[in-house]
Amino acid sequence: MASTPGTADSSHALAAAAERRWAIIVGIIIAALVAMMVFTGLQWAAMPPSRVETIDPRTLHISGEFVESNLGTSVGADGKVIVRLVAQQYSFQPQCIVVPAETPVTFRGTATDVVHGFVVGRTNANVMLIPGFVATFTTTFHKTGEELMPCHEYCGTGHEAMWARVQVIPANEFLGKARQGERMSCVSR
Ligand code: CUA
User: Fold this and answer.
1) pTM of the entire structure?
2) Ligand 1 mean position to 73 CA, how many Å?
């Protein structure tokens, strides 16, 4: 049964009004998203979100901070504990890292080939290592013992076999072993 012409007209007008309302709402949402993209794009281009330190991955093994003899844990003249490491397919260098417990430890690391990363056991020591950039962070280990340090960025067919170990030892034992300027690791020689 056909509806009366009046009813059809008013429901058509109702539908057109609803469509217009939704078109305006969707238009506002799209305009807001585009404005956010433009704002964050310009903002981040003007001021990058974090400190950026670059390094040439082709020459870092030849000279500078990340040569082999400078990798591992060291205690600076100011008493600061620094761990330097390099990641490459499919290992970390050094393979075993020794750090003191209850002491701030600064990690400085980079990658030579592709993007790697690591996490130390269940601690908050967790970082990405990107070729061309030096990643750094400072953390304190509270629990002594050995932690596994797997690579956690897929870096190729050997990814799942890429890991190192971290030995957390009491701070006094660590300082007893540490000698000024010497690099420490727990890699068996
Ligand atoms: Cu290195 Cu995954």
Assistant:
1) 0.73
2) 22
